[in-house]
Design a protein that fits this description.
single chain, alpha+beta, Immunoglobulin-like, 2 domains, five-stranded antiparallel sheet, four-stranded antiparallel sheet, 9 strands
């Protein structure tokens, strides 16, 4: 085969192979982005009075949805609540505790009381029906030494472990029910 005949034969195939390689690289990159997005863990729960300790008979309900960043440094959350007793919301938190047990407050979702010291000020709890959104990081962690939860990055990692182990819950406190009106155990989807 002559050199010019060989090039006429190889060049179209080479560009076709090069194009396929480029398309494969793009597909791989897009696939990696999808995999990275899929690596984020999603947490959801429905909040009701029957999950409170002690149990509360309330028409109130809520939903907590969160995404744990794939690098484990933050949690983006959305808390909604409605039909609270005829009293305003006081505050909402994430607690370290199993179902049927009261646990310490570790992360504030919102508050209408004096904000906690040593952490960023949480947003106000709007009147129901309402939605509160935010992002939680190591800076938001309140230490609960009696339960072995540290402040900062160590405490944030401990709470991620607790959430992954069904050992955390979210709840909304109201004036009529200051210990909590609605509650839901946090678990991964």
């Amino acid at each position: 085969m002559r050199h010019s005949t060989f090039l006429r034969y190889v060049e179209p195939r080479l560009s076709s192979v090069t194009q396929r390689a480029a398309l494969a690289a793009v597909a791989l990159a897009c696939g990696a982005a999808v995999c990275a997005a899929a690596a984020e863990e999603t947490v959801t729960t429905r909040l009701v009075g029957y999950q409170e300790t002690p149990t509360i008979n309330s028409a109130a309900s809520g939903q907590f949805k969160a995404s744990i960043h794939d690098d484990g440094t933050a949690i983006d959350y959305e808390l909604t609540y409605k039909d609270l007793s005829s009293s305003p919301p006081l505050q909402a938190h994430i607690h370290f505790g199993r179902p049927g047990l009261a646990g310490g407050v570790v992360l504030f979702l919102c508050t209408n009381l004096a904000p906690p010291t040593g952490v960023p000020t949480p947003p106000a709890c709007p009147a129901a029906p309402a939605t509160v959104t935010g992002t939680l990081t190591a800076a938001n962690v309140l230490a609960v030494s009696a339960q072995g939860i540290d402040a900062g990055a160590a405490g944030f990692a401990e709470m991620l472990k607790a959430i992954r182990s069904d050992a955390a819950y979210a709840n909304v406190h109201t004036t009529l029910h200051p210990s909590g009106e609605i509650r839901g155990r946090l678990s991964l989807d």
